[in-house]
Amino acid sequence: MEKTTNPLFEYCLRLGDTSLILSQRLGEWCGHGPILEEDIALTNIALDFVGQATAFLKYAAQVEGKGRTEDDLSFLRDAREFRNLLIAEQPNGDYGQTIMRQFLVSTFLYYFYGELKSSKDSMFAALAEKSLKEVTYHLRHSSSWVIRLGDGTEESYKRMKSAIDELWLFTGDMFDMDEVDKTLITQGIAVDLNKVKASWDKKVKEVFTEATLAIPENVFMVKGSHEGKHTEYLGHLLAEMQVLPRSFPGAQW
Amino acid sequence: MSDTQWPLWEVFTQKRQGAPHEHAGSVHAPDKEMALQNARDVYSRRNEAISLWVVPSEAIVASTPEEVGSFFDPANDKAYRHPNFYKTPGVTLD
Amino acid sequence: MTDEKELEKKFQERIDKGEVIEPKDWMPERYRKQLIRMMSQHAHSEIVGMLPEGNWITRAPSLRRKAILLAKVQDEAGHGLYIYSGTETLGVSREEIVGEFLTGKAKYSSIFNYPTLTWADMGAIGWLVDGAAIVNQTALAKCSYGPYARAMVRICKEENFHHKQGYEILAHLMKGTPEQKQMAQDSINRFWWPSLMMFGPHDADSPHSADLMRWKVKLHSNDTLRQRFIDRTVSQAENIGIKLPDPELKWNEAKQHYDFGEINWEEFNNVIRGNGPCNKDRMKTRRQAHENGAWVRDAAEAYARKQEKKSIAA
């Protein structure tokens, strides 16, 4: 769908949708984790993301000013209207792939929220401050695991290498900037993603090195999240997530 | 396929400033960093702790119930260790 | 009197005095074995209990409901963990306990072998299943074995929110559309009797009851607890307009309790034996999670060993 003419609304959707889709993916692990302690850890991260999604989508609805709620935005939009990062909607795969996805995204969010804290939009600044505390922990957890799985056994190393192959091509989408970014950056509201990329590159290299993993080179990046041009996975994810409100229009839960 | 559930660690939590660390339970973890993270996820979800200690269970040395008599009882007849053993007529010393 | 009999006598005296038994205390081998059985079954139940509810996390109909359900399931994992911790104090490793569960030797609560077919089942599980668990766990919080009692205290604190949110889900549905009301009533029709079965057979048919009562591990009979649960639940149902599917349910003024119909013990025994609607599924899911996770657990241990070697060499 065409981008709306409300850049602030678009920006809120990017943040809210990414959190929402990640919470959905992590929620799939409940009862299926490799050990009880990790079931608890992943659910903790999923919960944090639902909280962030609720906050950003609530603000989005307010900014849009058309009377929609965060639930309307979550459960009644079609895939082409979602603005989450492409990497968020990728399937969980094995535990290694889930952890790798989490690490790549958490590193991004860590530096992103670190910058957004200084936004001239006071709501963004406050949400960034709160989310940063949670994301700091997600980063600690996922980088610990990238290291242990990368430098664990032959098998775990192979699986982490596969995970990188599956996910790396979506990392370019994270740093893609368009007119929405440019407009809001001039207003002191949004974050310069080039800055975030520099920190992200450094951190990922540091952790990958300790994990004995290599940074891929010359990978063609798939982009499109800003235009709602998603991978085929999002449609199925939303079909499952939205089934009840869509089946019972107008019902309250 | 191994069936490992990782080593066992005992968890101690401090509820608030100034309080001692108390035994909260245990977690399984492959190493001390994960033990700390797991303890945080399991035992402080509801703000029940401001500080955590994790100790490998095998490191804990405990007195045995059989020793109770020789280990602890002798303290009973040394009442002079307690302030209320002493009478200080007409004067408060605290 | 032999040493063993003398020790047992002293042990029983401690129990009768209301003393709390701790891991290092002497205990009859049968006490230890019964507790391991009871506690590990309780832990397995919490873990399996994550599955019928986990089934609806991705389909929760609002952000608030999604968050609440995630928090609840996370609590259940935590409860399983607290109880596994308590069980390990009895000298058995988590590997052994989990092994007995995965091979099908150990049992778990029958209720989790029923499928969750609609969103309303999330309400039924919170209100009825957790409601029944609270009655059971509140009693256990005073049991004679310290680690078990302490785990129960922790769990009881957390369980109350589970119960309330389940009731709230149903209350909402009963104020909603005709389809939602029907969904709620249908859910209770399917979950009421299995919830009553959670308290186990009549005590006369319960093989371990006598010893467990003598040792204050079990403080009330199955039937007493079941009656307690029914008595407090009936008015809650009436309050939101839900009918409980028992034509014989009636207040008995003389007894000051509700009379109720006979439980279908054949169904109960079948489910306990592994023939319930979801037994195979639940076990398959847990076995798969265990097998799929082996490489992760192994990798973490391999890494730890490597780090240890490095620090010794340094």
Model description:
The complex is a heterotrimer of chains A (253), B (94) and C (314). Chain A is mainly alpha-helical and 253 residues long. Chain A contains 12 helices and no strands. Chain A is globular and about 55 Å long. Chain B is α+β, with helices and mostly antiparallel strands and 94 residues long. Chain B has a single domain, classed as Ubiquitin-like (UB roll), CATH 3.10.20. The mean pLDDT of chain B is 85. Chain C has 314 residues and is mostly helical. In chain C, 69% of the residues lie in helices and 2% in strands. Chain C starts with a helix and ends with a helix.
Question: How big is the Rg of chain B?
Answer: 21 Å
Record the strand order, biggest sheet of chain B.
Answer: 2-1-3
Determine Rg of chain A (CA atoms, Å): 18 Å
> Based on CA inertia axes, which overall geometry of chain B fits?
elongated
| Assigned CATH class of chain A | Mainly Alpha
Note the beta-strand portion of chain A.
Answer: under 5%
Name the CATH class of chain B.
Answer: Alpha Beta
What's the CATH H-level homologous superfamily of chain B?
A: Phenylacetic acid degradation B
Number of strands of chain A: 0
H-E string of chain B:
EEHEH
User: What characterizes the major β-sheet of chain B?
Assistant: 3 strands, antiparallel
Which chains share the greatest interface? A-C, 51 and 48 residues
CATH topology of chain A: Ferritin
Oligomer: heterotrimer
Topology:
The complex is a heterotrimer of chains A (253), B (94) and C (314).
Chain A (H helix, E strand, L loop, with lengths): L6 H21 L8 H29 L5 H6 L10 H4 L5 H22 L5 H29 L3 H14 L3 H4 L4 H8 L6 H18 L22 H9 L1 H5 L6
Helix pairs in contact in A: 1-2, 1-9, 2-6, 5-6, 5-7, 5-10
Chain B lengths: L7 E7 L6 E8 L3 H12 L7 E6 L11 H5 L22
Antiparallel strand pairs in B: 1-2, 1-3
Chain C lengths: L2 H15 L11 H26 L8 H26 L5 H9 L17 H21 L5 H29 L3 H20 L11 H6 L7 H19 L9 E3 L4 E3 L5 H11 L3 H14 L1 H20 L1
Antiparallel strand pairs in C: 1-2
Helix pairs in contact in C: 2-3, 3-6, 5-6, 5-7, 5-9
